[in-house]
C-alpha cells in the first residue's frame, strides 16, 4: 500500500455519517505526487475509490505535504485554501464541509 493510499484510508476511517446527513457528493482529490482518489458520499455512507470520477461535485488540488498536514490537523484546511495551498474547482462550498465530514482526532 502506498503512503498516499494509507492517508486516504485514514481520512475515510474518520468519516462522520451524522455530518453527511442528506449529502450526496463526490470529492475528487488530485495530489501533485501519487494517484488520484475520490470519496463518494451518499445516504450517510462514504466510499473511497482510486482514480477519477466522471462527474465530481468538487475537485481539490494540492501537494502531498499539504494533504498530510490537513489530515493530521497541523494545518487548517480553510487556511490552506485561503493561502493558495489548496485549489478547488466545482462546488467550492462543499469543501467547507470537509472538516465536519472527516474530523481530526
Can you walk me through this structure?
With 105 residues, the chain is α+β, with helices and mostly antiparallel strands. The protein has helices at 3-13, 64-72, 77-82, 92-95, 98-101, and strands at 25-31, 37-42, 45-50, 58-62, 87-90. A five-stranded mixed sheet has the order 3-2-1-4-5. Strand 2 (37-42) and strand 3 (45-50) form a beta hairpin. Helix 1 runs parallel beside helix 2. The protein is globular. It starts with a helix and ends with a helix. The relative contact order is 0.21. The model has no long low-confidence stretch (mean pLDDT 93).
Unreliable spans: none
Q: Which bin fits the share of residues in helices?
A: 25-40%
Strand content: 25-35%
SSE order, one letter for each helix or strand: HEEEEHHEHH
Summarize the structure.
The protein has about 100 residues and is of the alpha+beta class. It has 5 helices and 5 strands. It is globular.
What tags apply to this protein structure?
about 30% helix, alpha+beta, 5 helices, about 100 residues
Any chance you could write out the topology, listing elements then pairs?
Blueprint: H1 3-13, E1 25-31, E2 37-42, E3 45-50, E4 58-62, H2 64-72, H3 77-82, E5 87-90, H4 92-95, H5 98-101
Parallel strand pairs: 1-4
Antiparallel strand pairs: 1-2, 2-3, 4-5
Amino acid at each position: 500500500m502506498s503512503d498516499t493510499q494509507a492517508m486516504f484510508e485514514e481520512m475515510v476511517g474518520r468519516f462522520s455519517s451524522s455530518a453527511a446527513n442528506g449529502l450526496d457528493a463526490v470529492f475528487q482529490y488530485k495530489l501533485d505526487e501519487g494517484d488520484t482518489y475520490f470519496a463518494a458520499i451518499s445516504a450517510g455512507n462514504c466510499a473511497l475509490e482510486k482514480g477519477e470520477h466522471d462527474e465530481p461535485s468538487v475537485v481539490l488540488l494540492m501537494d502531498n505535504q499539504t494533504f498530510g498536514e490537513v489530515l493530521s490537523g497541523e494545518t487548517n484546511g480553510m487556511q490552506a485554501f485561503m493561502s493558495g495551498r489548496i485549489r478547488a474547482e466545482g462546488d467550492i462550498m462543499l469543501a467547507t464541509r470537509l472538516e465536519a465530514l472527516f474530523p481530526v482526532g
